[in-house]
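Working notes for the structural subgroup meeting. M.R. asked for a predicted model of this chain before we commit to crystallization trials. I am recording the input and output together here so anyone reviewing the notebook later can reproduce the run.

Input as submitted:
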Amino acid sequence: MLHPTKEENGEINDVTCGDAVLHFLSIGWKVLFAIFNPPPHKGGGYPTLFSGICCIGVVTYVVAEIATLVGCILNIKPGLTAITFVAIGTSLPDTFASMTAARNSRYADEAVGNITGSNCVNVFLGLGLPWVLGTVWKLNSAGCAAVVDGNASADVIFKSCNYMVPANGLILSVILFLACSSIGFLILILRRVFLKGELGGSCTARYGSAFAFITLWFIYIIFAGLGTYGIIDLDSYIRGEGLGVVPETFANVFDEAKKRIVGGPALMQTQP
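Returned structure, recorded in token form:
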């Protein structure tokens, strides 16, 4: 139901126009979730928790598939689609959860903890569990058993029994993510020292912090996208192959990016 809410300090928050519009747009999802989720007082709340997680997983899957389809229609490479459309779509539940926690909680622990915790789950569980399953499956596959029983060379056994998924531009993306995350945590630490709080503050502090974090996101997207399209080829450099053909100026960089994005797969195939 759409109704005024009461804060912990007793303050009453009335329904705004934005809340009413968002409620109207999401009424179908709310009815659907109300049907599939039992009341929270049943079973100590555990059935509601389990069904809620399942509903979030289904919606996240739908959003990810739609985002992937949009990237395919716009002729964007999967790597760039993953860090833009798919990442935004799958992070919306975390965004709204952190926003709700920041508004309703007295401290910023829940909002910041939700962000860091969700990323830990994505990295350690979301990547770790599939990699473990993939590695176990590869070791027990028929191809691995055949090369082991056939006394093949160590190089053939390594390639046949090891689960490897190469990703172009991943090294640059990880380095950028770590650098931008470190700067983000530094901003939070500075806010704690000088403003006595990670959230809120004066109008200048709020908008300045928001601008800094949005700028970090754009920096990550731009340079990670250039790495995905091979314009900044850090992977080859680490493998000892050199940086390859890197445009000398930013103008050439963006011109090359535009040609590769607009040209699509046909242009990529014609390049040596």
